[in-house]
Structure formats: C-alpha cells, structure tokens
Design goal:
single chain; about 325 residues; mainly alpha; MetI-like fold; 11 helices; about 75% helix; globular
C-alpha cells in the first residue's frame, strides 16, 4: 500500500463512522435522548458540588427562604442551601444506586451462568435464590437494614441481596436456552471444555441481556433507596440523599414545598429516564421484543388507514356540488 493510500484510509473511515453514528441516532433517538439527559445529570452531580456552597453549612438567620439569586431553590429549616443539597444528594443517591446495581448484576450473572450451564449445581443455587424471592423486596431490604443498622453499607448489602436473585433467574433462563443451540453442541463435539464454552460462546450471547438488567435494576435501586432513606433506614443525615431530603422536608410541606418537590422530581426524572433507556435497550437486543413492537406499529397503521380512507370519502362527498 502506498503512502497516499494509507493517509486516505483514516480520512475515509471518519466520515463513514460519522454517517453510521447519525443513522444510529435516527434509529434510536429515544434511547440516545434518555442516555444524553442521564449523562448530563451524572456530570452535574459529579462536578457542581466542587463549586457550590457546603450543603451541610447551617445558616439559622436565613432559614426557609424562598428561591432567589443567592439560593436557587431556597433554604431548608436549618438555612442550608437546597440546590447544593440536591446536587450533593444526587451524588450519593446515584452513586449508591450504581454500586448496588453493578454488584447485584455481577453476583446474579455469575450465579445464573453457573446454575444454567453446570446443571449439578442448579438445584442448590436456585433454591437459595428462591429463598430470596420468597419475600417482597422492600420488606426484605427493610429487615436487613434494621438488623445491620442504618447506613450506606447496610443499605448497599440489603439492596444487593434483594436484586441478586432476580438477575440470576433471568440470566439462568437465557443460559438454558443457549445450552440447546447447535453451536454449543458443535463446540462440545469439537472437544472444547465447559469453561471455555462458557467464556467464548455463552457469556457473549448473554451480555446484552445483562446490560438491560443493569439499567432496569438501577431504576429500582433508586426507588428503594429513596424509600429506605425516607424511613430513616438509609444514609443518615446530615449527609444529603434525595430520600432523606424528602423526609426532612415533609414537616414544612406547606411553608416550603420545594423541600419535597425538588428531590421528588429528581427521583422521578432519573427513574423515568432509566426505564425508558431499559425498554429501548431491550428492543435492540431482544428479537421477540422487536417483533412485538413492529407488530404493534403495523396494527396501529392498519387501524389508521381505513379511518383516513373513510374521512377522505366523506370529505370528497361534502365537496361534490349538489344537483
């Protein structure tokens, strides 16, 4: 290859990559928008606490002030800046949800992979997971938090325990379906060992499903974290989280409603964005979900087309001059 050809190769690959990225954005605009907004929120809670006032600095003289240029969301009952506490609380709430989701996804995926592929271990592992699924998640999390005491570590352990069984069940079902596929049988016939088959063939086909579970579990983790913090079983004040900010502001709902509205909207927004991203990712990685979405769109279009045709006939008849 000549020097000119080697110099032109990167130049031609960049526009092709940009065109492919634009096509992906057009085809997955909802997913791109939800991930974009989530990225902005994460960037804000990571960077803004470095420049905002101390979220735990009290100012009794300026307590329960309304929003102003100095305090964008007002102040709470101790005179602390609500905007600073909202951003710092987002760092704690989002960070804890991310840590719980990653830990539970890794643990559940390992259990599901081993249980689905090494059948002698299946019964024992699944009975253990069924024991965790026998209790409602929030009740089990509350019980574990009460036993271990309120705090970030106890909440992390409690949420990881309640999310691991569901992830293990989902991954196991995927592995069981893969185990009957022809390429797995061909790998076994070629003399490939179980561990190598698991790493080379099973895990790559399971990763998209694990990614979807990761996003969905993050939304659930945020909801349960907010509930535990509201009940006083999560991260203890004065460290702000969105849940304990709601708990602290409930006594001032009439005088300073932003103390509840601001963290409540933050939780709702993040959970909604994560759910949207999870649904869109599931449509990308799950052929059955894509087929169902296409069928729903076809049915909707078929319902609209006869209605549009009838409307056109009526409009034509109305425009036709009388005898």
């Amino acid at each position: 290859m000549s020097g000119n050809d080697s110099a032109q190769a990167p130049a031609t690959s960049v526009p092709a990559a940009a065109a492919g990225f634009r096509r992906w954005l057009r085809a997955n605009s909802t997913l791109a928008a939800s991930l974009g907004v989530l990225s902005l929120i994460v960037a804000a809670v990571l960077v803004l606490p470095l420049v905002l006032p101390d979220p735990n600095l009290p100012d009794p003289i300026n307590r329960l002030l309304p929003p102003s240029a100095a305090h964008w969301l007002g102040t709470d009952n101790y005179g602390r800046d609500v905007w600073s506490r909202l951003v710092s609380g987002g760092r704690v709430s989002l960070g804890l949800a991310a840590a719980v989701t990653i830990a539970a996804t890794i643990a559940g995926s390992l259990v599901g992979l081993v249980s689905g592929f090494f059948r002698p271990l299946d019964a024992a592992l699944m009975r253990l997971m069924d024991a965790g699924l026998a209790f409602p998640g929030i009740v089990l999390a509350m019980a574990l938090a009460i036993v271990m005491g309120a705090g970030a570590w106890s909440e992390f352990i409690a949420l990881t325990v309640i999310f691991t069984p569901t992830t293990a069940r989902v991954v196991r079902s995927r592995v069981l379906s893969l185990a009957t596929r022809d390429f797995i049988a061909a790998a076994r016939a070629s003399g490939m060992g179980p561990g190598k088959i698991l790493v080379k063939h099973v895990i790559p086909h399971t990763l998209p499903l694990i990614l979807v579970q990761l996003v969905i579990k993050a939304a659930l983790a945020m909801l349960i974290d907010g509930g535990l913090s509201y009940l006083g079983l999560g991260v203890a004040p004065p460290t702000p989280t969105w849940g304990n900010m709601i708990a602290e502001g409930r006594a001032f709902m009439t005088n300073a409603p932003l103390l509840i509205i601001a963290p409540g909207l933050a939780i709702v927004l993040c959970v909604a964005l994560l759910n949207i991203a999870g649904d869109e990712l599931r449509l990308i990685v799950d052929p059955d979900a894509r087929a169902l979405r296409a069928l729903e769109r076809l049915r909707s279009r078929m319902r609209r087309e006869p209605a549009a045709a009838r409307a056109a006939v009526v409009d034509t008849a109305a425009r036709r001059p009388g005898p």
